[in-house]
Amino acid sequence: MKFNALFSKEKLGDLSLPHRIVMAPLTRSRSSQPGDIPNDMNVEYYKQCSTAALIITEATQISPQGKGYAFTPGIHSKAQIQGWKKITDKVHNENGRIFMQLWHVGRVSHSSLQRGNAIPVAPSAIAVDEGQAFTYEGMKDFETPRALELNELPDIVEQYRLAAINAKQAGFDGVEIHAANGYLLDQFLKDGTNKRDDIYGGSIENRIRLVMEVIKVITDVWGGSRVGIRISPTGTFNSMSESKPQELYNHLVEKLNQFNLAYLHVVEDFANAPVNGFNFNVLRKKFNGAYMANGSYTAETAERSLKNKLSDFVAFGVPFIANPDLPKRLRLGAELNQADPTTFYGGDAKGYID
Ligand code: PHB
Question: Which of 23, 26, 27 to mutate to test the pocket of ligand 1 (most atoms within 8 A of CB)?
């Protein structure tokens, strides 16, 4: 077989995975409205992908406040939990495994998506200065967010805790904490967006505080072996910046080890952001769980990464969109379909389950 490493078994937390090809979280914006509820078309979509070693769901809002894009699903209402239960049942019937990605977008939202047209929240009142918000009335300019008050942060942690409980009720095998790509937790981590002068801002220790509190409550619900975290140390998507990424993420990973998490999911490349000498392998060596690499990997580069012990799993995003049976295709050396970007976000079955 051509890809021996890619198709070798490995443990992830207390799960045994049949190979190393993980389905990365992909926003597809096709939940039922009103209510951000997973539907039968979504069931079929995840079913089709169930030969992935692990499916990580599309980013899913932990609360109404955590929503930032039209048509994305949530995990904070009964109807949403019931909708997701159909998905997890179907994936399990197909012998698959599925984690839910827990998402609070922070400033990457718009008042028209918020309850009572509230202004989106963030560590500091600094607006996203690239792109636009995807609302039900089309694309709109980002607004300047409201800086969260110190006494509001326990409620943010509580939103994560309740979502983790709901994900368990919905039959997931575990959860992934989304601390990447410029969303709320990333906004707290990085110094371009976190200008707070309280215990959640300033020093690295302070900037990782919210993430640590969130992990604590989520691992209390799930146990560390069913929890992963996704980070993007070099990411600039959503106008992010960090002055000392290596220091920040080395420290974060050292602190993560106390929770014995299943995996560290690292976005190594997203929208071609410059890496500027960042050493991802330092994170891998420091971390006591599995290292999941993500970002523009092909079967060949993934195989090399695994062989060279640079990663334990590789998460593929776009290739899964047009090739839901991706592991089989790679195993057979079959040709891959090219994905159609016009069908990525929103719409119907076209480019989704056909
Ligand atoms: C997106 O909807 O564009 C999106 C969502 C979550 C991510 C990255 C991008 O982590």
Answer: 27
Q: Taking the model in full, what pTM does it have?
A: 0.98
Burial of 119 (0-12, 13-18, 19+ CB in 10 A): middle
Q: Where are the domains of the chain?
A: 10-343
Which residue's alpha carbon is at the smallest distance from atom 1 of ligand 1?
A: 27
Query: For 274-329, how does the pLDDT look when each residue is reduced to its tens digit (9 = 90+)?
Result: 999 999 999 999 999 999 999 999 999 999 999 999 999 999 999 999 999 999 99
Residue 321 CA to ligand 1 center (angstroms) comes to 14
State the closest ligand 1 atom to the C-alpha of 72, by its place in the atom list counted from 1: 2
* Three-state SS at 351: coil
pLDDT digits (tens, 9 = 90+) for 255-275: 999 999 999 999 999 999 999
Residues 6 or more apart whose CB falls under 8 angstroms from that of 182 comprise 108, 128, 193, 232, 235, 237, 238, 239, 240
Assess if CATH 3.20.20.70 describes domain 10-343. Answer: yes
